[in-house]
Input
Amino acid sequence: MTLIILDHLRKDIANKRFATPADIKGTGGKVQNADVVILIERSGDQLKFSSYSKDWDRDVRFLLEVSPQGSSEPKIKYVDDLTDLGTESQKKAWESKLKVLDAMSFMEWVSTGQLVKPTGMSAQTIRNHLKTLVEEGEVEHNGESNKKSKYRRIKDKS
Output
């Protein structure tokens, strides 16, 4: 069965070189359950095409150029393979975020400080990941700020 979901990316990716599946708004179940995630980003007359799969050794990325309307050139043409750009850092960031998620319990509320030792990450890195995980619907926040902030992993509803 093929299922295609049209969605949009979060606004905070403007400074990133490439969007990743984690940048899809409400990512949680969509990306976890997908065999392949394809992202197409448009910037002026260029399209960045990125494809991610659990079963591939590496992601696939390439750049396309869209010809202006009325041009005699082909409407869309291949410009460059971007597969190797940023792959390692994005993979490490993705794995780092999953490490935070794995260190969390479904039933117990935890603070950022409680996740430092099991993950081996700084509190700031954990806070950044938790913010993303809350936006993706993987984690819930108790609504408190500063030292009273607690987080809990949300059970999969599927």
In short: Residues 11-84 form one domain.
